[in-house]
């Protein structure tokens, strides 16, 4: 159940609604976006409560949703969401190319990579400062120092920047340094992190957990939206299967399924799905053909020297070829890179 409040609803009207819901013992989330205030409630409401709600002056509309995710659902918003970051649009008729190294290693590495990628249509540079590593003995990334490097490098290359946030305590500082936040696969159901990112005023790339169903993934998007941030970009990055030829199995059917369930943009990360560079161009073309709104790809100026995920890192030249091929597919599907 979703309650849309009128645009001019006052804070006392919002409080009145909150009190009514609290008294009835109904768990709810009040989500303020730039355009409006929406309240999500888990339960189906009794008739008497519906009547009481309808009598409140601040209420514009009540929407019953058949899905457990509500603000992320097509019944809440039937038009595709297009997210604007700087002058880049993600969603609709645009295919966004997001590329860059797995991890921030130095300011020079970031600038070199960005300068090479610019010519291939990349407007957003990915690079992580906080690295979720399987082994506690592996390098864990440069942390806050890396974020500062990302920002300093941006002054030289001018691209938008995105980076992963792993800890709720780091959300505010990460949001100060980057244009797009990323939640990695391992943290898709870190609910405290999702709530904190819900309070940030930056778009969020939400990766699919490697064992998460599409519904669980959308419920995680719902967490972010219910806490106030409606700028969520879903990212398919492969799921765990019995197959060993790739690191994960890229589930491209999820892109098509999501179109029937949500208005949120969906991008694809073929790099972490494949875990190997050779098939990334093929997976990228397939992702755009099935309707992905963008690609997230690992590129390193010297792939073999990459401190993480060297096997899947493309060189800037390889990426340039991929980008030319992807542009053709985007055009065939009526969109542009
Ligand atoms: C990443 O994109 O840097 C990453 C670690 O990917 P994932 O969370 O999908 O494993
Ligand atoms: Mn990586």
Average residue pLDDT: 95
CATH superfamily of the largest domain: Aldolase class I
**How big is the Rg?**
21 Å
Q: What would CATH call the architecture of the largest domain?
A: Alpha-Beta Barrel
Helical percentage: 25-40%
Strand order of the largest sheet: 7-8-9-10-11-12-13-14
Q: What does the overall shape look like?
A: globular
The CATH class of the largest domain is: Alpha Beta
Structural class: alpha/beta
By CATH, the topology of the largest domain is TIM Barrel
Count, helices: 11
- Number of β-strand runs: 14
The ligands bound in this entry are: phosphoenolpyruvate, manganese (II) ion
What does this structure look like?
The two termini are 37 Å apart. It contains eleven helices and 14 strands. With 337 residues, it is of the alpha/beta class. The protein is 34% helix and 18% strand. The protein has helices spanning 11-23, 47-54, 107-118, 143-157, 171-177, 191-198, 214-226, 253-259, 270-274, 280-289, 316-332, and strands at residues 2-5, 28-32, 37-41, 59-63, 83-85, 88-90, 96-100, 124-126, 160-164, 180-183, 204-207, 232-236, 266-268, 294-298. It is globular, with a radius of gyration of 21 Å. α3 (107-118) links the parallel β7 (96-100) and β8. Strands 7-8-9-10-11-12-13-14 form an eight-stranded parallel β-barrel, surrounded by seven helices. The chain has a four-stranded antiparallel beta sheet with strand order 2-3-1-4, covered by helices on one side. Strands 5-6 form a two-stranded antiparallel ribbon. It has two domains: 2-63, Alpha-Beta Plaits (2-Layer Sandwich), CATH 3.30.70; 83-332, Aldolase class I (TIM Barrel). Bound molecules: phosphoenolpyruvate and manganese (II) ion (MN). Manganese (II) ion (MN) binds at residues 102, 272, 298, 308-309.
């Amino acid at each position: 159940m979703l309650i849309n409040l009128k645009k001019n609803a006052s804070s006392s009207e919002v409080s009145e609604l909150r009190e009514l819901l609290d008294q009835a013992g109904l768990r709810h989330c009040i989500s303020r976006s730039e355009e409006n205030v929406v309240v999500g409630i888990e339960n189906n409401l009794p008739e008497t409560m519906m009547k009481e709600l309808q009598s409140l002056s601040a209420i514009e509309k009540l929407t019953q949703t058949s899905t457990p995710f509500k603000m992320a659902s097509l019944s809440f918003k039937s038009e595709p969401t297009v997210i604007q970051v700087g002058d880049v649009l993600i969603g609709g008729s645009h295919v966004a190319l997001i590329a860059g190294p797995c991890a921030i290693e130095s300011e020079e590495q970031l600038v070199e990579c960005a300068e090479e990628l610019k010519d291939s249509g990349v407007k957003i540079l990915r690079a992580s400062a906080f690295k979720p590593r399987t082994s506690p003995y592996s390098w864990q990334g440069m942390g806050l120092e890396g974020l500062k490097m990302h920002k300093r490098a941006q002054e030289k290359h001018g691209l938008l920047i995105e980076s992963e946030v792993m800890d709720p305590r780091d959300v505010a500082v990460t949001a100060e340094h980057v244009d797009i936040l990323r939640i990695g696969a391992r943290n898709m159901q870190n609910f405290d992190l999702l709530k904190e990112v819900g309070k940030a005023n930056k778009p969020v790339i939400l990766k699919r957990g490697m064992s998460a169903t599409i519904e669980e993934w959308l419920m995680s998007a719902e967490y972010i939206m219910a806490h106030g941030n409606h700028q969520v970009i879903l990212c398919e990055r492969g799921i765990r299967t019995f197959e060993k030829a790739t690191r994960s199995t890229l589930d491209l059917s999820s892109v098509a399924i999501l179109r029937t369930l949500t208005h949120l943009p969906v991008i694809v990360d073929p790099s972490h799905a494949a875990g190997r560079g050779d098939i990334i161009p093929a997976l990228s073309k397939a992702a755009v053909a099935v309707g992905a709104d963008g690609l997230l790809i690992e590129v390193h100026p010297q792939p073999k020297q990459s401190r993480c995920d060297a096997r899947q890192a493309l060189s800037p030249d390889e990426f340039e070829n991929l980008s030319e091929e992807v542009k053709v597919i985007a055009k065939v599907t009526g969109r542009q890179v």
